[in-house]
Amino acid sequence: MKKKIIISLLGAVFLMTLSAEALCTQNMRNEAERYDRIRYLQDVVDSIKKDIEYKESLIAKERSPQKVHLLSLEIAELRDKLDDAEKDFVDYAADSNIFESQQGPEPQQKDLSTDFQEVITPVISSIKRASERPRRIEKLRAQIAELDLKIKHAEKGLASIDDLISSTGDQPLRQKLADAKARVEEFRSNSDFRLGVLKDQLEEELKDNKPFLQTAGEMLKAFFSEKGVNLLIAVLTILAVLLVMFGFERMILKPYLYSSRAHFISKPVESLFSLSAVVISLLCGLISLYILNDWFLFTLMLLILMGIGWSLKHLLVRFMDAVKLMLGFGTVKIGQRITYEGCQWRVKRIRMNTVLENELLEGGIINVDITKIMGLSSRRMHADEPMFPTKRGDWVVLSDGVYGKVTVQTPEQVVVDINGITPCFYKTHDFVSLRPQNLSRGFVLEMSIGLDYKHQKEISDVIESFKKRFPKDKVYFGKAGAHGLDLNFEFIFDGKSAERYKELFGELQRSLVEVCTKNKYEIAFEQLQVRVKNK
């Protein structure tokens, strides 16, 4: 057992030794590659310097202005390459990206056209001014974070360069590394100074930090102090133009153009005039802002109108249908009858806010969005056609068996008082669907009675005796039933008897029984016949 343990330990030590040797070999290889890369970058720098010296010597000998100019351009390009190569040398020697992102990002090509940029420039400028302080604070914080990161990279780079200097014996390379170290130290020193300045600026900015509500209040106050007067003038201009336009319509168009002679064009002209009045008033508001040189409000109002117009393009088809209805070219016309939500209505006015009325309903005028009546159809009204089956105070019998007095009927609900105490509530369209029988306009009670077949020969005399008892009502022979001779009765009442509807049933039944008793008419009853079959 001990032998196996010793063999295992020796194997582990052997593997660790191999791993350490492999790691050391890899590190030595990486160090060798790093030195080779540094020497290559040094050679690139020296090569560019020699090219610059050669071009400068040519300029000294050259007398042609054109060639001198071309050589100068080439030297300037080489100097830029030399600066980039030296930065690469320092970054690689320091093993850190110290000089990375020193140059700003390349300007990106704008997607928006120049004209549109010029239009929205006033709005963007105003928004930038309003958010200048928060953006300045955020910018300072971002710069401080970036400098902190670069200082850390510089410190790490100095340590890396010191390691290279101490481990190389190449004197020219040591000198180059020393120059790179000096440059990194100078960069760190400048960064430390710049970091201190930025922190002081951030501290000064944060001293004036105010609560959000106070800042928002100051921004609103500044906005209305600068733009409030111009905004008020624009709003008053819009309202004044609207008042003038609608005043002109009331004084000129309605008395003359909307007369009975021109009724066929009155509705289209009225709708077009209303639309034109709104458009002209908005244009006058824009012109007032243009005259006042308030480009911020002018551009903002223009963008809002453009946004509204752009959003309405998706609703163009429905808008055109609405315009057709308002102009009188649709399937719904003013003064005609329409069925809306299960009830009958008269179309009083068609605009974006359409008005429907029903005089039999309490509060029977409703405002409906024009989109709600799209797809509906209206028709001419008949002179004797009621707009609702009942009115307040009528007695009704519904198909669900409810009998009572209508106490309230509005566009939303109908209340039926059943017994003077208990109200029954219905939605208006549900009430109509229950086929109410309006007893207050008169009603007929139908009854029947069956007499025994022994009165078969005298059935005509029987009918005459009932007619003498009920002279104003209908009495006629119904049929020869299975158990008796059926007589039918129709009792006609006017609307004044509607509140006694249930009582009348009992009184009439009693009267029929009295006639039968007086004349000794035997009322038939159902008989059960039992037949027994003999075996």
Write the layout of secondary structure elements.
Layout: H1 2-61, H2 65-94, H3 114-130, H4 132-167, H5 171-207, H6 212-257, H7 263-291, H8 295-312, H9 316-327, E1 337-340, E2 343-349, E3 353-357, E4 365-369, E5 378-379, E6 395-397, E7 403-409, E8 413-417, E9 423-427, H10 428-433, E10 437-438, E11 443-451, H11 459-469, E12 474-480, E13 485-493, H12 501-518
Antiparallel strand pairs: 1-2, 1-5, 2-3, 3-4, 6-7, 6-10, 7-8, 8-9, 11-13, 12-13
Helix pairs in contact: 1-2, 2-5, 3-8, 4-5, 6-7, 7-8
In brief, what are we looking at here?
Helices cover 60% and strands 13% of the residues. It has 535 residues and is an alpha+beta fold. A hairpin with a 5-residue loop joins strand 6 and strand 7 (403-409).
Give structural attributes:
single chain; 535 residues; alpha+beta; 5-stranded antiparallel beta sheet; elongated
Give your account of this protein's structure.
The chain is an alpha+beta fold and 535 residues long. The protein is 60% helix and 13% strand. Strands 4-3-2-1-5 form a 5-stranded antiparallel beta sheet. Strand 7 (403-409) and strand 8 form a beta hairpin. Helix 2 (65-94) crosses helix 5, helix 3 (114-130) packs across helix 8 and helix 6 runs antiparallel to helix 7. The protein is elongated, with a radius of gyration of 51 Å. The termini are far apart.
